[in-house]
Design a protein that fits this description.
Length: 492
């Protein structure tokens, strides 16, 4: 019961700021139809309940599965077995990531199924799985993280040159969406297997930083290759459906229920089958432990279904509608200000951020305090959403105008920031792209892009998640540089 209360409290406070902002906007400058507001509030309730159950299930089943799988692979004492096993399990873990499922559905809807959600999910999952294997190799052979990241992002830069701007935005958004509540802990748990293959366990523990960043870069490479290798068909005229109060509240959710059940089942079933197979051939857990795992998978399954129902039934609708309304104002400062506030509120309410701040404070022995880390992340993510709105409003600004100098700066800072900060900084990109970013704020940006005549819904409606994932990297690397300078001045 204490675990349930703790998880519920964690999720509740992570969605509360968005709820309060929406209600405040409804009462002041952006009123929405009554049915839409009620669907949003019910959707938020579903999101809280769904994520609570999902996270409990992750603790009961997904974390242990990662640990057990890593141990099983390490026992083989064969690197190729570890790599192959990591690829297979990593693929299915990524395919079950809630944020990625939401993004894939939104891309399918906006492109009128020219980019099918299943195709995107499979491509991104394969890309992540392959890069995960490369990350394992890096740890095993002690290859420097900054050199590998330079190589990966150099490849991404080359692939980006001939890529359609719409696919560039989708690729970087997909990368930000892979590092969610499911993939990150599982990837870190799998890295235990590699640490057991190495004699120097302390070095391997240090090397685990950056593994998430390497894996998520596979999503970018996969989508760019998917575009370059596919027939060059023109994308259909984008469609964005604004929410209305035509549908009754509960029938709206009932209409979406089957699709949510289908998606949740397809996502979780492969992981469950992997556990069953490994239990029969290797794990041999006791009945009580197996029962606990089964209960955990049940929580993950039911929680994911309820979460997806809440997102599609309430959050996406009202996010798009508010973005559309604010974009219609003559004074564009309103939508820019709301975008900035949404970014700051989202990052400050994200539970994983506080885990990261504790980690950095511990690593720096208190020299960099929590307040400084929180402030820098809040400014960074708020600025990311602000710049995304600005890109929608100003047709001359393209996504690469942000991403190219941003990643050049991030890669350049690797040569000046302490090495321990590099992995933490690149991993931190996934911390910022939580459930609210991939749902409400994504819809908010798309609603604005649909209203502004000079904006393109496909090109300008995506890319926000990419910026939100980029800014924490830069901010934490800058903190690392400050930490290094402070140590020099104090002679530490």
């Amino acid at each position: 019961m204490q675990v349930l209360q703790a998880k519920f409290k964690e999720v509740f406070f992570s969605v509360l700021p968005i709820t309060l902002i929406v209600i405040l906007l409804h009462l002041t400058i952006s009123p929405v139809p009554g049915a839409v507001l009620w669907r949003f509030l019910i959707g938020e309730m579903f999101v809280v309940i769904g994520l609570t159950l999902f996270l409990i299930g992750v603790d009961l089943a997904i974390h242990p599965l990662g640990d057990l799988t890593g141990t099983f692979l390490a026992k083989t004492n064969k690197l190729w077995t570890v790599l192959l096993g990591g690829i297979i399990v990593g693929f299915f873990i990524c395919a079950a990531e809630p944020d990625l499922i939401v993004l894939a559905n939104q891309i399918e809807q906006v492109t009128q199924k020219m980019m099918a959600s299943t195709t995107l999910l499979m491509s991104v999952s394969l890309g992540l799985a392959v890069m995960l294997a490369i990350g394992f190799l890096r740890i095993f052979y002690n290859f420097p993280l900054y050199k590998l990241l330079l190589g990966i992002y150099g490849l991404i830069f080359l692939l980006s040159i001939p890529t359609n701007p719409a696919f560039l935005a989708m690729a970087f958004d997909a990368s930000g969406s892979t590092t969610g509540v499911l993939a990150v802990p599982f990837i870190l748990a799998l890295s235990v297997g590699i640490s057991k293959l190495k004699k120097d366990s302390k070095a391997s523990e240090k090397d685990s930083f950056g593994l998430v960043a390497i894996a998520s870069s596979g999503a970018i490479v996969a989508v760019l290759l998917l575009h370059l290798l596919s027939p060059k068909n023109e994308l259909a005229t984008p469609v964005f459906e604004l929410a209305s109060d035509n549908q009754a509240i509960w029938s709206h959710f009932a209409h979406l229920l089957f699709h949510s059940i289908k998606e949740g089942t397809i996502s979780v079933l492969p992981l469950f089958l992997i556990f069953v197979v490994l239990q029969l051939i290797s794990f041999r857990l006791k009945k009580r432990e197996v029962y606990r795992m089964f209960i955990g998978f049940g929580y993950v399954h039911i929680g994911l279904i309820i979460f997806l129902l809440g997102v599609s039934g309430g959050l996406m609708d009202i996010g798009g509608l508010i973005g559309h309304q604010l974009a219609s104002f003559d004074r564009k400062t309103w939508i820019l200000a709301v975008g900035l506030i949404l970014g700051v509120a989202t990052i400050l309410s994200e539970p994983a951020v506080y885990v990261l701040t504790d980690q950095i404070e511990e690593v720096t022995s208190g020299y960099i305090q929590k307040k400084a880390i929180l402030a820098s992340l809040a400014v960074g993510v708020g600025l990311a959403v602000f710049l995304s709105v600005l890109r929608v409003l100003v047709p001359q600004i393209q996504l690469w105008h942000y991403l190219l100098p941003g990643y050049l700066l991030a890669l350049g800072l690797m040569f000046f920031t302490p090495k321990m900060f590099i992995g933490m900084a690149f991993d931190a990109g996934g911390v910022a792209t939580g459930p609210m970013t991939a749902t409400f704020i994504l819809a908010f940006i798309q609603g604005a892009a649909d209203k502004i005549e000079s904006a393109n819904l496909i090109i300008d409606g995506f890319g926000m998640i990419a910026l939100v994932a980029l800014m924490p990297i830069i901010m934490l690397e800058l903190l690392g540089v400050l930490f290094k300078l402070k140590n020099k001045r104090e002679g530490i």
